[in-house]
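Input (structure):
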């Protein structure tokens, strides 16, 4: 089969298209999926560049890709939830940049009705991350105020929609085309961070959901009410600033599972959720796709289509 591998740590120059053997089912609870599309996520580049070495060391050569959509072509003896021919989405953690991938059936869900394979491949990590920040850790409730840093991005755009569906008042930061996108997705207010100072606009926020990190993160403590929360999926927030402003601040490791995905999938099937695919590349264009995402300013999700 065709697959994308990192031959070593480094720049996108270490990415290569290879012909390797198709994976086989190793566990009786596994399924084999013919991949139709795979999501491209920042962690894919972090692994490649060696940023994750201490937290998540990998053996080279390595096939990246943590999420996929496709069709089941084989099932293990104990698989009870799926059959050959089912269209599914899967959290794979690795190996999704390929024509075939295996996954435990507990990490697989039916592909939401009405979504293309490209759209379906864009939702696993984004919905799981949004659910983890807003509800698992953030405990967001109806009527609360949430500030979403990066509301035009892949995860931020999902957060906007899920927070609105929960009845929260949503302020999103974005720039360029992301401003119009965040508005379209339902944000009550959108702050163009290149033209406006969010600390002069947002006040008494219950929850800051940070998808961007960087210098701006430190300023966001100012907008929280006492006892509020700043939760980031980008960089660990300052505990010194948390103490100074009398708020809670934590780095969130997303819990992505069939359970945490269900809320978002229910919203999709109820017509209350819009998938956000920014650009689609072919599998053999994986290096270009990663460089495109790394360059920044991407509104929505980058997806690889597998032929």
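Output (sequence):
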């Amino acid at each position: 089969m065709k697959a994308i591998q990192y031959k070593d740590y480094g720049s996108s120059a270490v990415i290569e298209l290879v012909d390797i053997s198709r994976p086989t089912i190793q566990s009786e609870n596994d399924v084999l999926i013919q991949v139709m599309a795979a999501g491209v996520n920042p962690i894919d580049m972090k692994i490649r560049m060696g940023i994750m070495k201490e937290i998540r060391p990998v053996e080279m050569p390595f096939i990246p890709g943590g999420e996929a959509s496709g069709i089941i072509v084989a099932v293990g003896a104990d698989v009870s939830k799926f059959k050959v021919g089912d269209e599914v989405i899967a959290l794979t953690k690795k190996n999704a940049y390929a024509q075939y991938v295996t996954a435990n059936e507990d990490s697989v869900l039916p592909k939401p009705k009405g979504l293309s394979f490209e759209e379906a491949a864009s939702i696993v990590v984004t919905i799981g991350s949004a659910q983890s920040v807003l509800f698992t850790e953030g405990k967001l409730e109806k009527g609360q105020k949430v500030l979403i840093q990066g509301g035009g991005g892949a995860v931020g755009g999902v957060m906007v929609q899920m927070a609105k569906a929960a009845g929260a008042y949503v302020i999103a930061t974005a720039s360029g085309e992301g401003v119009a996108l965040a508005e379209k997705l339902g944000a009550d207010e959108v702050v163009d961070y290149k033209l406006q100072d969010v600390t002069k606009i947002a006040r008494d926020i219950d929850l800051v959901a940070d998808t961007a990190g960087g210098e701006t993160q430190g300023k966001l403590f100012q907008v929280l009410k006492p006892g509020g929360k700043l939760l980031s999926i980008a960089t660990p927030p300052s505990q010194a600033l948390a103490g100074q402003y009398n708020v809670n601040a934590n780095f969130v490791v997303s819990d992505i599972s069939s359970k945490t995905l269900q809320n978002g999938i229910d919203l999709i099937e109820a017509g209350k959720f819009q998938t956000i695919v920014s650009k689609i590349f072919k599998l053999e264009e994986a290096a270009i796709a990663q460089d495109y995402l790394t360059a920044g300013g991407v509104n929505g999700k980058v997806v690889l289509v597998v032929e």
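Notes: Residues 2-123+275-305 form a domain with the Quinone Oxidoreductase; Chain A, domain 1 fold (CATH 3.90.180.10). The two ends are 11 Å apart (CA to CA).
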